TrEMBL record:
PPR repeat positions: 270-304
Region entry Disordered, spans: 1-41
Superkingdom, natural source: Eukaryota
Descriptive protein name: Pentatricopeptide repeat-containing protein
Amino acid sequence: MKRAWKISSEAAQTRDRFLHRRGSHNKTPTNNSLNPSSSQSCKASASHAQLLREFTSQKPSATSQSAWPNIAALFLNNWIVPDDSTAKQDQRQRVSVLKDELFKYSGDAENIEIVLEGKGVPLFRNYYDGSAVVELLKYLASSPDLALQVFNWRRGQLDYRAPMTTEEYAKGITLAGKLKDVDLAAELFAEAANKKLKGTSLYNALMGAYMYNGLAAKCQLVFQDLKREATCKPTIVTYNILISVFGRLMLVDHMEATLREIKDVNLSLNLNTYNNLIAGYVTAWMWDNMEKTYMIMKADDVQPDIITHLLMLRGYAHSGKLKRMEEIYELVRDHVNTNEMSLIRAMICAYCRSSVSNKVEKIEELLTLIPENEYRPWLNVLLICVYANEDLLEQMENLISQAFEHNTSVKTAAIMRCIVSSYFRNDAVDKLANFVKCSESAGWKLCRSLYHCKMVMYSSQRRLAEMEMVLDEMKQVNFYFSKKTFWILYKAYSQWGQKSKLQQVLGMMCKHGYEVPLNACCS
């Protein structure tokens, strides 16, 4: 024992001389170094600058001063692989090659497993921290089924050699959520917990899976569990998920309460926070709050991204603020014209509801961007009404023909009256007659206005026989004569001197108890 103590004492003296020589080369004294384990435990709850202040202010006791924390500090930066480092780039390149190989066999489970065994195992064993697996799953995000197959293989085949990490489980939970398999997401979370893997990213992933599948109540329960967790705390990502959940449900009060909680815990709002807030206000049609949030975002030096601009474009389109809509559109024109047909339709709707003089030109310019296979019945009917109100008969009839071809059914009398009014103003009775006939066959909403309009137009052209045939058409669709029907007949026969038929009409009016014109009684 004495000899052991002597050796230990000599080793300590050697260590002290080594550290003294190391310190003598430094021109300026250094602060107490960071303890890696302590840094990891505080990572989720404080910013980088706060961590530095916290640890540099700590004064270790005499018994805790040893060389190991100082030596660890010398290598601390070497444990972290920067995203732009040569090693990281090499990893990405190798993972990308594996990703391309897997995509070749997408849907072929047997060959995928062969590729993973032959090329995946050597690659993943070089990265025991699971970073290669996480990187691969990112690359496979566009094919969630394939990504989940790779994850399940990793889960079953490699775990005995290199235990799965928290981030790998978080990726798996996210994949399960995208595939609408919330049971699998919960199973993976429980499996990670059983392995003593704890982390905010796991909770965030499970909350995201529930959010993606519309399970707001379960999402909130997971959030409450996270707040009770001693080893990790909610991050801004956690609160962003909550804001998104409440925004989708139009629970604006809850969304704003979450925002206040973010400020209470001294977390900084990031781009996703603002985007989720704007999305919530757009969903709730709270245009002023949407615009106010956008202005605050820019005032806080948070640069809007493409998602922000797309949300604002949709909001301005729905609210009818055309000038601001056009300003945002100019910022994202190329992207919208190629990828956002729903936003193109929203802009068309905005112009349809507006009273600007050149709205038809604006509408037709946007319509050229929509492929033929992107037909939408509601948009077709809306455009029919626009062209009808503008008395653009040819364009209106082209859209009506498209509606008949796509078996679109109009069930609103107001739309039918809008179409009829356009035919009336253009004095196109024959076209109106054809439209009424097609509408009867297609099951569109029928109303007396269709037939009364035909009668008036036939009468104006002294086509009384055809006018009388309309009465038979009304009987076939169970429209009985109304007071207005008799008045149309009365004026037609009076105008063209058909006295005998005029007397018959007067008799029918008396029979049905309708008021008889005074000039008819005098005559």
